[in-house]
């Protein structure tokens, strides 16, 4: 069981989050610490008192004694505590600074002291898994930032090469989700981001946690698409421009069943001269060569012949296409049958130099990286040559397989398979194994890889998922842009995931890395608290996540804020005070979407990162007010325009692409959610009337809005 300390948990978002967390995670315990100042209200979690996994403690986050006592018994602190009302912070900026900055410092120091292991801050793989890079398969301790991996763009479905930005390694003790079948083997933490498709929408890439995916009845592993260079000809040094399709097929045949033979032969030297000396000394004035008057000292001459062999029998499945390809390329070849077997060969020192890049000897063969950058048509020709040479098609199923004793070639074949839309896997064959393929007995003298290529969908769902306990290290990569890469476990490959009002006013959208330019004491104190969090992450290595939420609304919203104030005033037929012209723009988010965003960032985000959590529903304040009046059937004559507050941001909006890459998708249907909020306040009139009748509420609203007249 994991225990969380939710500070400020008696407020609007905190209480909704505590309820959301307890409902979603039956093995989690939530402790709430709240000072119960003006917005803290134990009525906000009236339905949680009887829950044995819930406890409430009254106290301030600036108090190091109570914070220390609670922190020593929890795994993680989630801080909602803040003096969160801009209007109050203008009247009393010192209180905002104490809570929003000093209080955060007390929480950070307690977390550092008790070594809080945010076990859930990164979605991770077990140590039996490896990443497929452009330089081959690598363990977590071999990967370096800057390595390139093959990644799928979740929006387009196309495969792209992306850089590794960070390697994350940490200790972990807890449950793992193991997806295991004869075509699937992946072990990840329950919060891990899984990329998948559904049978109903195979073109749409979706993202869920491993735990959520393990409960799905039907889901499939993602297969990417590939573009690549579409050139049709390639200039071979010393040969000229040739057809890429023909060249790639020939290269595939050579990699699988070809070799270069450099044959040298000593013959008697009739003149005694080396070739260069002979050309210089034995040419007559008329340009003809003759017998030299004086013989040189060389007794023998060594001649060198470069021959390229293809060990392809006459009745082999690829023999006919090989002969046609050689003819297309203008290569004069010879067929030979003898004790060493049947083969095709031709002599050319230029072609011999070209073929040397594919490696000499079965254990050293490879696919050069430049070939894998071409389009599907070219890569299919390469693949056909490889399978026709040293591969096999299963009878009746057209499922290709390939055998090699070269690790580099196996890794290249896997990359090639992914780019052609296959889902590759491999097994390792021992030296003692032998087989019979197309009438040919195969007796390897080295351990070999058998690589299988499947085009049909591979399931990743609850029938192949189980939860297992794990105690050891887990790892993940931070991958540029797409945040996923190809991972291998026991020879099976899967595309899987890797693992925000402090800005100011904007005409566009704020991103996480934009400079902080707060315009009010509340925002400035919050920004200072965030910078303190960053300092503890960098200086002490404390596992931290910061989320920045857009304007939030929903049940239990304190009735000083715009939406609940307008609802309750309208219900009382009181004036609805609107700042300035009411044209300020805010991005609104449903409170449970905000809770979901924090949950995703908490479990899937990378330590030290900042995540914008937004609703994607921008509205002018005046339009929100009019929508409330319409939902209540009240006249717009209740609207009263008042003097704008100092430092009021004209527009506030967040860029949430970073969160969306983690799978966050807020409900953007603002109007029905606003109506649902209005309905809640109508049905819970006793809750808000109790608050609005308190002296601290009435004195603040009177003082603040009297000055706005």
Protein topology:
Elements: E1 2-7, H1 12-24, E2 28-34, E3 54-58, H2 64-71, E4 76-79, H3 86-91, H4 93-113, E5 125-126, E6 129-133, E7 136-138, E8 148-152, E9 159-181, E10 184-188, E11 193-197, E12 206-209, H5 210-213, E13 220-221, E14 233-236, E15 240-243, H6 244-257, E16 258-268, H7 275-281, E17 300-310, H8 319-328, E18 334-338, E19 341-347, H9 349-355, H10 376-390, E20 391-393, E21 400-404, H11 407-419, E22 423-429, E23 435-437, E24 440-442, E25 448-454, E26 465-479, E27 484-489, E28 492-497, H12 521-540, E29 546-549, E30 551-553, H13 562-571, E31 576-579, E32 585-590, H14 591-604, E33 610-613, E34 617-620, H15 621-632, E35 639-642, E36 651-652, H16 657-660, H17 670-683, H18 685-692, H19 695-706
Parallel strand pairs: 1-2, 1-4, 2-3, 29-33, 30-32, 31-35, 32-36
Antiparallel strand pairs: 5-26, 6-7, 6-27, 8-9, 9-10, 9-26, 11-12, 11-13, 14-15, 16-17, 17-19, 18-19, 20-21, 21-25, 22-25, 23-24, 27-28, 32-34
Helix pairs in contact: 1-14, 2-4, 4-12, 6-8, 6-10, 13-15, 15-17, 17-18
Radius of gyration: 35 Å
Mean pLDDT: 85
Number of helices: 19
Q: Main sheet, how many strands, which sense, barrel?
A: 5 strands, antiparallel
Low-pLDDT runs of 5+ residues are 84-93, 117-122, 499-510
Quaternary structure: single chain
Helicity level: 25-40%
- The fraction of residues assigned to DSSP E strands is 25-35%
How many beta strands in the DSSP annotation? 36
Give me the secondary-structure category: alpha+beta
Distance between the termini: 54 Å
């Amino acid at each position: 069981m994991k225990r969380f300390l939710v500070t400020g948990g008696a407020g609007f978002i905190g209480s909704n989050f505590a309820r959301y967390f307890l409902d979603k995670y039956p093995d989690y315990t939530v402790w709430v610490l709240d000072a119960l100042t003006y917005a803290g209200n134990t009525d906000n979690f009236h339905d949680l008192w009887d829950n044995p996994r819930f406890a409430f403690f009254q106290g301030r986050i600036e108090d190091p004694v109570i914070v220390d006592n609670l922190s020593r018994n929890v795994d993680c602190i989630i801080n909602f505590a803040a003096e969160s009302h801009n209007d109050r912070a203008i009247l009393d900026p010192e209180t905002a600074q104490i809570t929003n900055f000093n209080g955060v410092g007390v929480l950070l120091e307690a977390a550092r002291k008790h070594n809080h292991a945010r076990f859930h801050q990164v979605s991770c793989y077990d140590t039996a898994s490896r990443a497929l890079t452009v330089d081959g398969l690598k363990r977590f301790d071999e990967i370096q930032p800057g390595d390139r991996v093959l990644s799928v763009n979740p929006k387009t479905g196309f495969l792209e090469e992306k850089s590794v930005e960070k390697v994350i390694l940490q200790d972990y003790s807890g449950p793992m989700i193991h997806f295991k079948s004869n075509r699937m083997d992946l072990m990840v933490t329950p919060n891990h981001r899984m990329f998948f498709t559904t049978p109903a929408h195979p073109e749409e890439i979706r993202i869920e946690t491993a735990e959520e995916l393990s409960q799905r009845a039907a889901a499939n592993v993602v297969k990417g698409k590939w573009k690549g260079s579409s050139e049709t000809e390639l200039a071979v040094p010393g040969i000229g421009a040739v057809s890429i399709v023909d060249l790639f097929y020939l290269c595939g045949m050579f990699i699988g069943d070809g070799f270069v033979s450099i044959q040298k032969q000593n013959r008697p030297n009739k003149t005694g001269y080396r070739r260069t000396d002979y050309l210089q000394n034995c040419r007559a004035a008329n340009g003809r060569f003759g017998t030299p008057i004086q013989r040189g000292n060389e007794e023998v001459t060594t001649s060198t012949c470069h021959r390229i062999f293809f060990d392809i029998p006459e009745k082999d499945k690829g023999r006919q296409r090989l002969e046609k390809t050689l003819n297309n390329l203008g290569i004069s070849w010879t067929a030979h049958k003898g004790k060493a077997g049947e083969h095709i060969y031709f002599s050319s020192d230029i072609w011999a130099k070209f073929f040397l890049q594919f490696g000499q000897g079965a254990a050293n063969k490879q696919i050069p990286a430049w070939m894998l950058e071409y389009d599907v048509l070219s890569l299919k020709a390469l693949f056909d040559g490889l399978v026709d040479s040293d591969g096999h098609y299963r009878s009746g199923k057209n499922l290709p397989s390939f055998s090699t004793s070269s690790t580099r070639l196996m890794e290249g074949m896997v990359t090639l398979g992914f780019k052609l839309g296959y889902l590759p896997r491999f097994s390792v064959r021992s030296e003692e194994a032998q087989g019979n393929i197309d009438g040919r007995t195969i007796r390897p003298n080295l351990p070999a890889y058998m690589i299988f290529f499947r085009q049909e969908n591979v399931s990743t769902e609850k029938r192949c998922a189980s939860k297992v306990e794990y105690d050891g290290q887990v790892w993940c990569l931070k991958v540029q842009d797409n945040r996923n890469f190809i991972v291998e476990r026991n020879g099976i490959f899967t595309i899987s995931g890797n693992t925000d009002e402090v800005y100011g006013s904007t005409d566009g959208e704020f991103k996480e890395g934009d400079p902080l330019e707060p315009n009010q004491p509340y925002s400035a104190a919050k920004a200072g608290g965030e910078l303190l969090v960053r300092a503890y992450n960098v200086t002490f290595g404390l596992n931290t996540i910061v989320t920045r939420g857009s304007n939030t609304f929903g049940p239990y919203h304190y009735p000083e804020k715009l939406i609940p104030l307008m609802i309750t005033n309208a219900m009382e037929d009181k004036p609805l005070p609107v700042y300035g012209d009411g044209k300020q723009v805010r991005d609104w988010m449903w409170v449970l979407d905000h809770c979901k965003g924090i949950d995703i960032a908490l479990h899937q985000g990378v330590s030290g990162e900042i995540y914008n959590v937004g609703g994607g529903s921008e509205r002018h304040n005046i339009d929100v007010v009019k929508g409330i009046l319409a939902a209540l059937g009240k006249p717009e004559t209740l609207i009263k325009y008042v003097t704008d507050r100092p430092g009021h941001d004209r527009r506030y909006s967040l860029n949430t692409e970073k969160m969306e890459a983690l799978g966050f998708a807020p409900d953007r249907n603002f109007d029905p959610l606003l109506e649902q909020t209005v309905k809640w306040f109508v049905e819970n009139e006793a809750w808000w009337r109790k608050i609005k009748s308190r002296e601290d509420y009435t004195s603040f609203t009177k003082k603040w809005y009297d000055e706005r007249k």
